[in-house]
Amino acid sequence: MSQSKGTVVLAYSGGLDTSCILVWLKEQGYDVIAYLANIGQNENFEEARKKALALGARKVYIEDVSREFVEEFIWLAVQANALYEDRYLLGTSLARPCIARKQVEIAQKEGAQFVSHGATGKGNDQVRFELTCYALCPQIKIIAPWRMPEFYNRFRGRNDLMDYAKKHGIPVPVTPKSPWSMDENLMHISYEAGILENPKNQAPPGLYTKTKDPATSPDTPDILEIEFRKGVPVKVTNTKDGATRQSSLELFVYLNEIAGKHGVGRIDIVENRFIGMKSRGIYETPAGTILYHAHLDIEAFTMDREVRKIKQGLALKFSELVYNGFWYSPECDYVRHCISKSQEMVEGKVCVSAFKGQVYILGRESPRSLYNEELVSMNVQGDYEPSDATGFININSLRLKEYHRLQSKVAAKQNE
Amino acid sequence: MSQSKGTVVLAYSGGLDTSCILVWLKEQGYDVIAYLANIGQNENFEEARKKALALGARKVYIEDVSREFVEEFIWLAVQANALYEDRYLLGTSLARPCIARKQVEIAQKEGAQFVSHGATGKGNDQVRFELTCYALCPQIKIIAPWRMPEFYNRFRGRNDLMDYAKKHGIPVPVTPKSPWSMDENLMHISYEAGILENPKNQAPPGLYTKTKDPATSPDTPDILEIEFRKGVPVKVTNTKDGATRQSSLELFVYLNEIAGKHGVGRIDIVENRFIGMKSRGIYETPAGTILYHAHLDIEAFTMDREVRKIKQGLALKFSELVYNGFWYSPECDYVRHCISKSQEMVEGKVCVSAFKGQVYILGRESPRSLYNEELVSMNVQGDYEPSDATGFININSLRLKEYHRLQSKVAAKQNE
Amino acid sequence: MSQSKGTVVLAYSGGLDTSCILVWLKEQGYDVIAYLANIGQNENFEEARKKALALGARKVYIEDVSREFVEEFIWLAVQANALYEDRYLLGTSLARPCIARKQVEIAQKEGAQFVSHGATGKGNDQVRFELTCYALCPQIKIIAPWRMPEFYNRFRGRNDLMDYAKKHGIPVPVTPKSPWSMDENLMHISYEAGILENPKNQAPPGLYTKTKDPATSPDTPDILEIEFRKGVPVKVTNTKDGATRQSSLELFVYLNEIAGKHGVGRIDIVENRFIGMKSRGIYETPAGTILYHAHLDIEAFTMDREVRKIKQGLALKFSELVYNGFWYSPECDYVRHCISKSQEMVEGKVCVSAFKGQVYILGRESPRSLYNEELVSMNVQGDYEPSDATGFININSLRLKEYHRLQSKVAAKQNE
Amino acid sequence: MSQSKGTVVLAYSGGLDTSCILVWLKEQGYDVIAYLANIGQNENFEEARKKALALGARKVYIEDVSREFVEEFIWLAVQANALYEDRYLLGTSLARPCIARKQVEIAQKEGAQFVSHGATGKGNDQVRFELTCYALCPQIKIIAPWRMPEFYNRFRGRNDLMDYAKKHGIPVPVTPKSPWSMDENLMHISYEAGILENPKNQAPPGLYTKTKDPATSPDTPDILEIEFRKGVPVKVTNTKDGATRQSSLELFVYLNEIAGKHGVGRIDIVENRFIGMKSRGIYETPAGTILYHAHLDIEAFTMDREVRKIKQGLALKFSELVYNGFWYSPECDYVRHCISKSQEMVEGKVCVSAFKGQVYILGRESPRSLYNEELVSMNVQGDYEPSDATGFININSLRLKEYHRLQSKVAAKQNE
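Predict the joint structure of the above. Result:
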């Protein structure tokens, strides 16, 4: 009997792909430990455990990382108002380092030299997984079957996987595969590939799973009061029924429920992958969408204008880093520190309505607002000296006048 | 009889404030030319003309600047995806330089040394008006009554204006003033001040005028195909009834109609004024909201990722400049040039749905897209070599590994 | 006898201008407290004290702020590599908030409602002084005589000041005024105005006071080893004679001496004032120039590339804020925090040579460097896998190839 | 006799490495065309031609690209004030796309499917060469022997190359190799590797080749008047002897001569390679250093402050792109366009002195300057209204006062 090549911790999903990879890895001579992160997706975890063991996994880890996903990843994105290319709330990007971090921990605990995953060779997720692994454990070795010719040449399509599954006693899915691929976690679900690869094709009815169709969503809004401290939501109150949620995970789950019920959080975009190609994705991010709008509002209310501008630049960088897989990097550490620092005074309540796919800000209040009702009032002059504005405008116009003077001189010369 | 102090071109709105200013300016010894820009607001222009003449204006100019507003101002904001502080589509900010430019033209034509306006001393509009005037005509003199003690000490509230009006035969509004102030143009309407000054107060029902309440808006969407060339919309087709619009002004008016009908474009925000205070505004921007989303989509589809990032930075600057009143400035000239340059290949059709206050992107197509369906496909390998991604990831991880190495070394030293 | 209008703390320099202002303020009915900061300039402080008292100052404060200037202001600029418009090391800009902060402290201690200064109405210093005062003590009132018509109309030139001085027993300078104005502190000296206002005029021989002419400076360099911790110099050793300096102030003074001896730190620039005009200045910043180069080097050696890029952007902002007078502002607080955070690992020794007006970096070492001699070596392959670079390049080329593909398609179409 | 695998255009330097590669490529079955760019380096081109032919090159191209290097590459860097990581003038980075462009042209003309180069697998140059090739000719195939195991495992050090050379009749260098590697072109020379890999080691005496040692350089400066149009030098006049140069190449060569004579342009830095490692380099860039300073000065003199700030951001990006090898990329095209646009008014004369390793700006003049001597003058009030500055400062302080108010409120609350 041949010697093991070593132990691999495989990020296992329970699906056809990673089941085949599990068996294939064993075939290649590895001991396989299956690892399945519970990051809030809709999944039968116990069935997956049994399946992995049945397929020959030496051990199965099913790890609930939902709460740390919310507190250590999503909350930072909320503080940042993180948005990739002006639209994408980074639902998948944020989950990857959270999942991979635990995978590395397991590998270290188990003394495994290898980790493996089922991400494709054209996508972002391979990068996010692997950069996390290398950053946290530089000596780790990564097996990415979809980038290995011996694997991808053998499995050229779904049919090859099906054949292999049948041959190796891997349970084959009974329901037909949807004509697109999905990836889900607590924050969002993505739909890509298949018929969606044509960017002109509209999302077919029935695609969405996390949000109701706004056409059939309730005819009355839910109105929520969201309370923030240090830029992070700490309490949600539904003004309709008085329901409240305070703990991070419960609060986030509740917002998903309300937003989902009202069809909030759907987008259809073409984005630029780190790898250099454009791809089309349809996403649902219910709670994330509400929090994006609510945080934007309370931040604008409590943060100085110029601090906000600087923080906005850092957040653009943050979003790009997270998207590209650099959560664990010196620069992302640094940017996170700076963004968190900016949130110290971001405190207060925002009142929002969720209705028919839309989030409306209705009002806000804060003990730490820089809004000064008396100062801004049209009826009260207060300390404000209107004539100061004259000087302000005049000095600001100085440069413009000088520019005009020069333009005229140059124009005059050209007409000579 | 005393000599005239000279001629003033007054930006006249027909309302109580500027009517009193008109009379007051005459009282101060100026000849007054009233100028009223038709920039798409809902207004009885002929009545305003008569009123101005009746109040003693030497001449009245009513100038339709709607088309130039769309073509020379709004289109640039669309190309830029211009957004101030992540939310405000700049509806008022864009109108000011358009209005003031014409005012300067009239002053130059009429040989007037003065221009005047009724903007308050705490707001942005005074800055936008005056910087435009100074930039285009450095020697112009500006009379801003609301910043002159002799004026604002005399007119301390609406009652003082009413009294003055009665005394000087200025027609007094018969309907009671709404408990907030409004400013309207073709692109947007703003509601500010009064009861809205408390940022916690929700917008009262009945406030909105340009958009239907999403609660009562139609139960079926309108689906529009918007065609862009060089980043500017050149054709809109309603797929429901086949209606099309191609000329800029008509196209924009049509989008206002459809978006308004579906309740699209409402926001309630606190923003930072140039003058240094925070203010609260409720805005409606129907067509602008649709175009923002549609342009964002076609741009992402046709523009290189890295060009997009650079252009995004320039657009942030552009938005700030426009908000602060620097449309006519060397830096805004420069930024506009650069942004327009980036739009040369932004061409194609976006399909959008307007429904219940929301805009949904449904699909897009373009002869100049950088999207490559074959390259990105999960089913086709194409020219793409998956193993290249391994090298790409490894090289990207180099820096992260080095950082880890250093951190470990430092940590080890500290534990010694 | 008339009542005092209150107490003014006047930033007093001992020169003709502020002596006249002192007397003039008394004439206007104020009690005057003279405040003279010792910030390292060449000055006879005791004589100035006597003069102020003789002119009627109720009290004189001579405050040595040199050490806090170095530790709380200059060190931050060193950490930032602060440079305004690519050239100016901000010697004056950094001194102003340090001087004004103490002035506000004195005003608060003395219960004075007013502060006053002799800065002109066209310059940056008025802004820097006053923004500092307002930020630290919003209710303070500022008397800026050079912006008050009753003052500047009375004193239209130096002769008017001389006449006034003679009339009021103010000692008149016996040496003729140099044909330019100077401002000096520990970090730098500036020469402006007068014959230097023509930007074509070369600095006359004999203008410089802090640095030797490189033409006559020593023919052998001084070679210094500068040690940094957290981005701040903590020790300087002269390899020639073994002299060392460790305490911040002594270290800085020593670097001034060595740099000055070798003619290091002269520049002649045209810069953009906050007020909107361009001005010409000739500056000497001996120690600051050495530290700029040395810090740049040790930072590049110890800081991650991407962190550096982000920090560079923040430092650009920092420099602009400091130049414009916003040292005490929420945004500058924030930026300083972020920059300091970036310096935690900036530690090590840089070897520099000062010679004939130039600073040369000769070498560097650090226990916290990210430089990895083995990794970069051309002779050792180490862990590095050259073939990874192929994948890295190929993936990076993907976008470029796609762009080429599109350009060709478009070109082909245009040629049809 | 076996069939050719095809034709390779090899970037040939005449040295040991590329000579071995030439023979090795033939050994592998390729037809080899040698290409040697004359980009201003010190080289015996005819000898190299003979050598290549003797080694079996089917054809030799020796192409003089000096003038296009100056006009199409260096001039853009001058306009940009391009500087990588605050110090490196990009002398090598700019040369690579110029060299590779011609290589691709030759490949296309000769119908060669392959290009090859001798750049190492750890450096930047491989990236710069290959990205240029792929961007200009996506279907080209690149042979990079130093990244191919069959090559680098065979040639593990210089001795292996020497042995191979002797065996294959390749002339072996008679002079011992210098203990570092060099790369030269018209703009600069770099010294790296070998004994310089230890960043603490000082550059040994005798290393420099393009500049005189400042210790022995002339004791009197050369004073040059450099005239710019559209941000590009168009004329240089030496005020000492009246010598002038106007044509781009001649002008640049002349500046190299003068700067070199005075020891101008030496730096010793640690920089961050694109590949993710830090490396140490010693560089000489004589003419480039003078032009950097002169252009900075004329630009500041003629460009609006705010345009300058935006352009500065673009130039930072430009420098990074050029360093990383993305000269031919959509984003670099775009940035170059924007930077050139900013230079339209950058016109005038700068007077500079080169002396003992240093460049001093002495004065400047321009028909298009925004400098207004009268406006800035301390003696002339002009149109400037000093009281405007009061309003300007007050309005700017508003935000700071509000922040203070909030801080006090929060502090008060915490002390309750």
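Chain C touches chain D through 103 residues (CB under 8 Å).
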